[in-house]
């Protein structure tokens, strides 16, 4: 009897030991797996990204923008601030990133920097059309772009296009962003340097050899911008922006930036703008460190607004060269399955009514006195735009189907 109970005790001890070992092993495996997930796989290269087959080929919605506008002539000191009015310091995170499957949470959205509000754009464009241009100088990139200073001290980047399609792309991309509620593109107006407003700089304009009655674009000049690199999840081996991604290491400032990047990806897909993330991916073939450098045509304001500049490759030129770039565009779009709710709603509306051409045209015509001079999208390009809206819509549906159960 005693032998039996000793045996039972030994058996019990053995079982307990086995259980402890089993649990410990499982925990170790989970920790290992988590570590693996956090370290990007170097084996998944840009080529792997390319191997993915290419996809077959208003209400007043701008958020409350608070801008710090200094009085007098100091418009160049303007800074974009967060909606809360406080700089985002990247400190410990208190906000859940996601909500309802594939959307950035409302809480996170409420902390996003407001960008360029519609009211701000209206006020700026009135000024830019009225004030005399006092000087033109380098300071906005290539020599055909000029930094203009107005009589009230504010400034604009003037872009002259060798052909009209560059200015059209820049201008219509701006209006498309407004249609989508994406407030990261600085306000823009068209101008004719042959007009009286430019009398002060006539000699300079002649020296630039701009064609006689050329239409140029003027974009608000923003002070204190800095460069910004592509965030890790959006690099070829970064795993994408998905509800299944691990956001535990991201600070609130990181998440606020990622939310704006999700808009950037949708915007650049719709406009087929290759001159930002996509051209970097392309360059990886011969420049393996390109992702570590600042992304072209993307800048960041001190309080976290991403500023999408130089959109001239979009819509017109971008659509002409789609054959070359589409596989990259669709790879980037596929890597994003988290969206800003408003952007997704806008896309859904434009898909449902199939009216992106009409809505873009009306907004452009009603906002821009020189719209008729510059012209609009051709029928073919308007069809491509609608087709891309439909594709983004279907992609969002696909993401919802895949991740809503999470
Ligand atoms: N709206 C702006 N506000 C402030 N700086 C600007 C603005 N637009 C352009 N710049 C400055 O000019 C540089 C080149 O601008 P970009 O428009 O990309 O010119 P390019 O046509 O030469 O590519 C930017 O990196 C930035 O330093
Ligand atoms: Mg540029």
UniProtKB/TrEMBL annotation:
<protein>
    <recommendedName>
        <fullName>Four-jointed box kinase 1</fullName>
    </recommendedName>
</protein>
<feature type="compositionally biased region" description="Polar residues">
    <location>
        <begin position="67"/>
        <end position="82"/>
    </location>
</feature>
<dbReference type="GO" id="GO:0007267">
    <property type="term" value="P:cell-cell signaling"/>
</dbReference>
<dbReference type="GO" id="GO:0005615">
    <property type="term" value="C:extracellular space"/>
</dbReference>
<keyword id="KW-0732">Signal</keyword>
<feature type="region of interest" description="Disordered">
    <location>
        <begin position="66"/>
        <end position="96"/>
    </location>
</feature>
<feature type="signal peptide">
    <location>
        <begin position="1"/>
        <end position="25"/>
    </location>
</feature>
<dbReference type="InterPro" id="IPR024868">
    <property type="entry name" value="FJX1/FJ"/>
</dbReference>
């Amino acid at each position: 009897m005693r032998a039996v109970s000793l045996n039972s005790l030994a058996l019990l001890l053995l079982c307990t030991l086995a259980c402890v070992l089993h649990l410990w092993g499982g925990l170790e495996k989970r920790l290992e797996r988590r570590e693996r997930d956090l370290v990007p796989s170097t084996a998944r290269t840009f080529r792997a990204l390319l191997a993915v087959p290419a996809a077959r080929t208003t209400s007043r919605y701008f958020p409350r923008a608070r801008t710090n506008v200094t009085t007098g002539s100091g418009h160049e000191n303007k800074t974009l601030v967060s909606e809360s009015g406080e700089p985002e310091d990247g400190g410990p995170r208190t906000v859940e990133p996601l909500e309802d499957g594939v959307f950035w949470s409302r809480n996170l959205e409420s902390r996003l920097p407001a960008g360029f509000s519609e009211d701000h754009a209206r006020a700026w464009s009135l000024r830019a059309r009225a004030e005399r241009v006092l000087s033109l100088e380098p300071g906005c990139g290539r020599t055909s772009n000029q930094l203009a200073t107005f009589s009230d001290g504010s400034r604009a980047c003037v872009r002259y296009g060798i052909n009209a399609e560059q200015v059209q792309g820049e201008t219509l991309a701006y209006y498309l962003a407004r249609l989508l509620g994406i407030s990261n593109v600085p306000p823009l107006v068209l101008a004719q340097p042959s007009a009286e407003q430019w009398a002060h700089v006539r000699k300079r304009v002649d020296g630039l050899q701009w064609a006689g009655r050329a239409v140029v674009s003027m974009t608000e000049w923003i002070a204190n911008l800095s460069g910004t690199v592509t965030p890790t999840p959006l690099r070829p081996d970064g795993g994408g922006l998905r509800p299944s991604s691990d956001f535990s290491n991201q600070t609130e400032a990181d998440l606020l930036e990622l939310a704006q990047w999700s808009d950037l990806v949708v915007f650049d897909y719709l406009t087929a703008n290759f001159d930002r993330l996509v051209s970097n991916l392309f360059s990886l073939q011969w420049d393996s460190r390109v992702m570590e450098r600042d992304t072209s045509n993307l800048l960041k304001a001190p309080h976290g607004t991403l500023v999408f500049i130089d959109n001239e490759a979009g819509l017109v030129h971008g659509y002409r060269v789609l054959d070359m770039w589409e596989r990259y565009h669709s790879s980037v779009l596929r890597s994003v399955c988290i969206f800003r709710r408003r952007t997704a709603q806008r896309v859904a509306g434009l898909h449902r009514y199939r009216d992106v051409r009409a809505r873009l045209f009306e907004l452009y015509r009603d906002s821009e006195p020189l719209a008729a001079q510059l012209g609009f999208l051709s029928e073919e390009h308007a069809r491509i735009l609608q087709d891309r809206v439909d594709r983004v819509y279907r992609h969002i549906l696909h993401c919802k189907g895949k991740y809503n159960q999470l």
